[in-house]
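Field log, afternoon session.

UNIT: design team B
ACTIVITY: writing a sequence onto a fixed backbone
BACKBONE:
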């Protein structure tokens, strides 16, 4: 099988919207299923039920699996049958594999049409599973699709993938899949939505139409369509990630940041910020808060004058992303807390790690990924370019050690999950210079003669050089000076400004080989 299987998810839309989104999110975020399947949910946008049925059947025609969820309601009839019932019969005509899931016990009172549909299922003989809650539904759907992939295509999930799936399903909060009608799609931060979708699609933001962005947001569980009002709304996950102020709906969606002068909290922090906004942007504002409240010593390394960070930025970002992605959102009374002390940075997230993850496993680094909010975790990993494979704490550990600092400390505090980053204290010299911050690498420095190295030192100090100046300083001729400058330009260390007698050379601000912010060390 080369292409992903398209799984058509069929149900009465309004009654089973939670279940539809839960199934969609499961298929999109499960490590095994997402590799081999993609969910298809037709949203009934046409005002006419007949047009809606035509659209549903057209979408079904391009799918390879039919997944039916049945509740109490029968749904809108088009002629003698509901749209869902008509989809089921078309799936039979197409000889598609049919996976059916019935909510509630057989004795549950259902509408007449629904009872007829269930009787037809019994007569036709496809196997179906019953479920009573979304956890059971996810387990049954995951098992059915995994069995189908194995029996039809010989594709088997690994033991690790199965174990991760079970753990994630059991830990999953229903919070992020709620189809709320609080914030319409047009009222979200659509610029943030465009950037997020572009990252998930690996394309330029400008290449996406508004319809592309909405369609992808719906596919990723961030938006849903309400056929009653004819409006697209954000799901709970969509509000957290894309609302201009998520705290207007969920007061817990804020980062409370305090910076203290000493090593203990007091009633007079030197800096404070109540950070609100789309949570991907709130994370970046939190990083900026840390940046302005920590030290940035300058270090001379070879030909480089480098501005260092007191803490590794990527480790801090990873901790903040984890706090937003994995916190307990059902706890509406507590926010994420960021504390900057003289000797450490602390990130506190409401809620303890979901079972079976324990502090001991996190500290050892021996644990399998398990997310309470997989949709949020996956989308944030795209936005912040963080690998979402459960190794976040191992990366934080390595980043701190590589920075010359002690490993982060993991613990709990009155129902908060806490990550503390020990700082260098008075020994600021222990901070190491990251290799990617070097303007001139040792390999490049080895290619320069002593005269050219001195020219680079001046450039790094912020000076602009001319041929006449270098001829006088070194006692050399114009052709030799031109050759020196040409080499520095070719290596991406200098750039030419002006022409004729006004020609001069300065440090190149963005280097061709991907290093950046070279001017940062000259301020």
């Amino acid at each position: 099988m080369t292409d992903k299987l398209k799984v058509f998810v069929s149900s009465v839309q309004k009654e089973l919207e939670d279940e539809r989104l839960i199934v969609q999110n499961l298929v999109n975020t499960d490590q095994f299923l997402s590799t081999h399947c993609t969910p298809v949910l037709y949203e009934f946008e046409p005002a006419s039920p007949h047009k809606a049925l035509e659209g549903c059947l057209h979408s079904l025609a391009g799918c390879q699996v039919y997944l039916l969820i049945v509740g109490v309601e029968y749904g809108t009839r088009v002629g003698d049958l509901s749209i869902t019932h008509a989809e089921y019969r078309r799936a039979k005509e197409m000889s598609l594999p049919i996976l059916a899931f019935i909510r509630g016990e057989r004795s549950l009172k259902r509408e007449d049409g629904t009872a007829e549909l269930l009787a037809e299922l019994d007569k036709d003989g496809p196997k179906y599973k019953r479920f009573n809650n979304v956890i059971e539904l996810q387990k049954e759907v995951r098992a059915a699709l995994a069995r189908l992939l194995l029996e039809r295509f010989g594709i088997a999930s690994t033991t690790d993938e199965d174990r991760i799936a079970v753990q994630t399903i059991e830990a999953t909060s229903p919070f992020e899949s709620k189809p709320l009608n609080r914030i319409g799609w047009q009222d979200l931060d659509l610029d943030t939505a465009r950037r997020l979708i572009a990252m998930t699609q690996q394309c330029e933001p400008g290449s996406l139409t508004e319809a592309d962005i909405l369609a992808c947001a719906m596919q990723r569980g961030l938006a849903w369509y309400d056929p009653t009002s004819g409006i697209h709304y954000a799901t709970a996950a969509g509000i957290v990630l894309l609302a201009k102020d998520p705290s207007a709906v969920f007061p817990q969606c804020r980062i409370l940041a305090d910076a203290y002068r000493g090593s203990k909290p007091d009633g007079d922090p030197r800096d404070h910020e109540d950070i609100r906004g789309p949570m991907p942007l709130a994370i970046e504002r939190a990083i900026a808060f840390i940046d302005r409240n920590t030290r940035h010593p300058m270090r001379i390394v070879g030909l480089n004058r480098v501005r260092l960070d007191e803490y590794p930025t990527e480790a801090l970002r990873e901790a903040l992303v984890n706090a937003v992605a994995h916190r307990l959102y059902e706890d509406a009374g507590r926010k994420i807390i960021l504390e900057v002390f003289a000797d450490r940075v602390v990130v506190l997230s409401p809620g303890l790690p979901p079972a079976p993850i324990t502090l001991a496993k996190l500290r050892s680094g021996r644990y399998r990924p398990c997310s309470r909010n997989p949709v949020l975790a996956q989308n944030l990993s795209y936005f912040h370019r963080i690998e979402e494979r459960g190794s976040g704490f191992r990366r934080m550990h390595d980043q701190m050690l590589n920075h010359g600092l002690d490993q982060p400390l993991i613990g709990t505090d009155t129902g908060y999950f806490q990550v503390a980053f020990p700082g260098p204290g008075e020994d600021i010299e222990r901070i190491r210079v990251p290799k990617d911050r070097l303007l001139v690498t040792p390999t490049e420095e080895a290619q320069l003669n002593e005269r050219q190295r001195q020219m680079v030192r001046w450039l790094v100090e912020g000076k602009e050089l001319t041929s006449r100046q270098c001829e006088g300083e070194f006692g050399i001729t114009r052709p030799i000076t031109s050759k020196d400058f040409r080499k520095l330009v070719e290596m991406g260390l200098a750039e030419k400004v002006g022409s004729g007698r006004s020609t001069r050379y300065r440090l190149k601000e963005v280097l061709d080989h991907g290093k950046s912010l070279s001017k940062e060390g000259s301020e």
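LOG NOTE: The chain has four domains: 5-172, 174-244, 255-430, 439-522.
NEXT ACTIVITY: expression trials, pending approval
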